[in-house]
Write a structure and sequence with these properties.
alpha/beta; five-stranded parallel β-sheet
Length: 290
Amino acid sequence: MQVIQNQKQANKPIKTYINSCYPSLTKSEQKVADLVLEKMENVMYYSVTDMADMAGVGETTVLRFCRKIGYKAYQEFKLAIAKDQSAVQNDQSENSDEHVKQENFISAIAANSISAIQETASMLDEGALEKALELIEKARSVHFFGVGTSGLTALDAKNRFLRIGRRTDAVIDSHIQAMTASTLTSEDVVIGLTVSGSTKDTIDSLKIARENGANIISITYYARSPITKISDVVLLSGGKESPMEGGSLAAKIGQLFVIDLLCTGLALRTKDFSLSMKERTARSVLDKIY
């Protein structure tokens, strides 16, 4: 039945399908449907918590709505909306001059990258940043948890912190994350990286770390998302992305900007030590360069 429903759904735009299912939805589910139909272009950027709050329902109602219209999970539902919106945008730009599109492409990417940094700077709470720096400075070790593109940011973060002499690690495999988390204590800090704030593997590992007493710092775009509920400190990064834009450069730049703030802030707090470590680590790789 589910396969047949999905096949039928694939043949029509999601807005049309929601309208056809509307009478069979409960009143609470209709509130979700109304929000989706009204703000279709924006919904793909909402976390499940955002969606529930804006519709005035519980998160379980949002998930039930997604299943009622043929999707197994909220992220699958958002991906369907993103595909629909992408098709609409392609239709609108189909007749554009190729040279103009090329120029717009270059300037648009540049603008997005600049905007990601500006957005991150405006979203960050200085008090939260200061608290994060205090936790990191006192920590015995700092571990960066991330998967996918956020895992690559975790590796960049490890490189930055290692250069100023911090005991640090980047764990990008979900199994190793879970095992690492189980060994941590109140003397350790884990920094979780996820743009959506809903990455299950990362959140599950952070829960284990928290149960063992570790302090949790999260870097995410969404102030209201599953990861923020288990974090001691939340640092917001700009550069939102839709499900069709997973791994976008703008979102990664936002994350890296926050990492840069943490690393620079920590270096300023421990100026002499950080400077000596920078020199020592730099000397250690001198013979690796011609």
